[in-house]
Amino acid sequence: MRLSKTDIYAFKTLGYLGTQPPGRLVGSEELSQATGVRHTYLVRILAALVGHNLVVSKKGQGGGYTLPRPPEEINLRDVIRAVDGPIAPLACISLNWPKACAKEAHCHARSAVWLKVRDAVLQSLSQVSVADLAADFRQGVDYSECLDHLLPSSELLTRRVPNHSPGPSHPSVSLPQLARPSLP
Fold this sequence. Notes:
single chain; mainly alpha; two-stranded antiparallel sheet; 7 helices
């Protein structure tokens, strides 16, 4: 599982909403200013959160967004599913978007690794709530620094060798490029 910008922005948004009194409607402009998330991007995130009943919206004059229940009752497992979809790394082990595999009964990696990874990630994410995000927001932690630490897919094929000696540093070591078939 990798975090995305959208995840970070959703955490910031929910953190801010979690600091508000229950039932207070917050307009999208206020949310955008408070979180630093561009308004057009924020509206898309809010639509996903509303669609999964993690945020409630009211349209019109005096409308806005609020949490549908106490922040302690909304966990990050549900937030990431709302924003990104499946948490499981493979469809054959997904709880909500399963796809059967003809080899799953004989697949050692599935039972020894992937099911355990899925369960550990789901367990960890379910233990963190919007109340935790709100506590961070109150303390000035808004996850903006996290945006600088996201792993872009273009860098995933580059392996960095750590420098463990006092000598000259080792440059990044690129993995060999995969051969692509030529098109006729």
